[in-house]
Design brief:
- By secondary structure, the protein is mainly alpha-helical.
- It has a domain at 48-54 and 69-95.
- The chain has helices at 2-24, 73-97; strands at 50-53, 68-70.
- The radius of gyration is 42 Å and the shape is rod-shaped.
C-alpha cells in the first residue's frame, strides 16, 4: 500500500512538472527586463495619411510587400492642380502664338508752316 501511494505521488509530481514545462515553452523569461530583438527601419517614398495597415507587429514579410496604404486624395488633388496649370499655360502659349498683323501706316500731314 505504501509503495502505491509513493508511486501515485511520483506520477502526480511528474504530470504537474510536464504540464508546467509544456506551458512555459516558447515564452521569454528574464531577470533584468531586457529582451534582445531585431529592429528593421522602414521608410516610405512619399508621406501621407495611412488608411490601411496590411501587416501585424513582428510579422515576417517578404521584400517588396505592401505594408501600408496611403490616402491618395492629396496626390490626386495635386495632380488635378498640375493638369489645370498645364492647360492654362498651353492656352496662354497658344494665345501668344496667334499673330495679329500690325500694319504700319504713315501719313504726311499737309501742314506747312511759314516763317
Amino acid at each position: 500500500m505504501r509503495r502505491g501511494i509513493i508511486a501515485g505521488v511520483i506520477v502526480v509530481v511528474l504530470a504537474v512538472g510536464l504540464f508546467i514545462w509544456l506551458r512555459s515553452r516558447g515564452s521569454e523569461s528574464t531577470d533584468d527586463a531586457q529582451v534582445d530583438g531585431r529592429i528593421t527601419q522602414i521608410a516610405a517614398r512619399v508621406g501621407g495619411t495611412v488608411i490601411k495597415v496590411s501587416v501585424d507587429n513582428n510579422q515576417a514579410v517578404p521584400a517588396g510587400a505592401v505594408l501600408v496604404q496611403i490616402d491618395p486624395r492629396d496626390y490626386q488633388i495635386a495632380l488635378d492642380r498640375a493638369r489645370a496649370e498645364l492647360a492654362d499655360a498651353e492656352a496662354t502659349a497658344a494665345a501668344a502664338r496667334t499673330g495679329v498683323p500690325i500694319a504700319q501706316i504713315e501719313t504726311n500731314a499737309g501742314v506747312t508752316t511759314s516763317a
